[in-house]
Structure prediction request, 491 residues.
Amino acid sequence: MESIESLIIAKYNYWAVIVLLMVGLYAMITKKNLVKKIIGMNIFQTAIILFYVSIGAKKGATIPIIMHGPDHSSHAVQAMDYINPLPHVLMLTAIVVSVATLGVALALALNIYSQYGTLEEDEISEKIMKSEPG
Amino acid sequence: MKLLATIVIFVWGGILFFTSFDFPYWGDGKSPASQHVSPYYIEHAMEDTSVPNIVTAVLADYRGYDTLFETAVIFSAGLACFFLLRVSDRKAPVFRLYRHQSTGVTLRIEKGGRLPENTGEFERIDSVWVPYDLIIVMTCRLVVPFIQLFALYVIVHGHHSPGGGFQGGVIFGAAIILFAISNNLRRSLKRMSERTSALLGSLGVTIYGGTGMLCILLGAGFLNYNALASLPGVDPLTARSLGILIVEIGVGIAVTAVMVWIYYNLSSAGKQDEGL
Amino acid sequence: MIWQLDIIVLSMVMICAIAAISIRDLLGAGILFGAYSFLMCLLWSIMGAVDVAFTEASVGAGVSTVFFVAAVFRTTRRTRD
Prediction:
């Protein structure tokens, strides 16, 4: 068991990811406003992206662009010198998907507002119950 | 519900906290995530594709199939926003507000009335109207071309620097959104109509899929850019780099069009007559 | 990979996220969400993920905040919780 400080430095990323996941989940379950739920969903998504990127980090390594001379000649490439690029690629797709989902979710919220006049979940439930026959 | 949510969060958070002690240390070079496939990508990206930016090479060449469907996802999101929100102009109740420029009198004209178009004195205003602000309009008019130029640079220079098709496409779309916010939504619709943005969105996905089909027609597999070396004028060493450039341009066009399209539908709630 | 900067920015990210869901004004929540996106972008560029940081800066802090403000403009700004 190393010292407490090196443990905190090594694991603080993951604890922050866990806190953000819980914050996002709490917002999605508890909040009654639809826009707050959408914000919670986005916080959840970016926390997952943070998790993947922090798995791929390497101490003492440089960014994943290969250092080359002016005529595209490069020395032998060592895999230890460069940060792992594979999580970055997967997370680019994840960011694209998150903005697409955000657009569709906000369009749905606008439609609900134009039909029921409110964005609070309990008021919408009441209006649906009242308009249903029986 | 709040009590149940709090219990669920603390239980699940506690379980995750205990499993976090088994994770590899942050910044460890020998973690299992960096062992199996990614050393191959790092060591062979430059000699296979002659693209120094490993992320662009993996995104558009080694994992090009994923990126094709990611572009399809973003186009279908724009399409979904269109189907959810758009009301046609005939069904929406139409009233227009016109303001007389010299006296400041505002007219509200309901459907069927005569509109004071083509007279120099009346201008059409939004429901939430602020006076014409010269500084904002002139500054945005000066800045928008430079933002677009930077966006084109980001798309094309994605081989050597951080960037690529998606980032450049979003910046280009943001430049058009800036124009739509600083001026009217109607002026922006005159320059880039909704029909143009829908067609450009599908054109971007077509360019990407079309490159794949071109590779099949030239003899290799789908999205195997080595087949492009048999085209006249293409150096066999950089054939894959050329293929990556073409698909990045396709992605950039699609993303630009979809960002603008979603903005048009969201900010006017489908009616497309007045925006933010 | 400066770990001190990493820990400070992570703490600010957590505070920003909790504030974004507790504020009672929806426009303020959208702006705080934009600030959260910017801090995430800074975090990823500390960890060396420059492509991801570029994308998040343009998408999260640019276009996504505009979408939120446009949606709040078309619906209501007040909320009860």
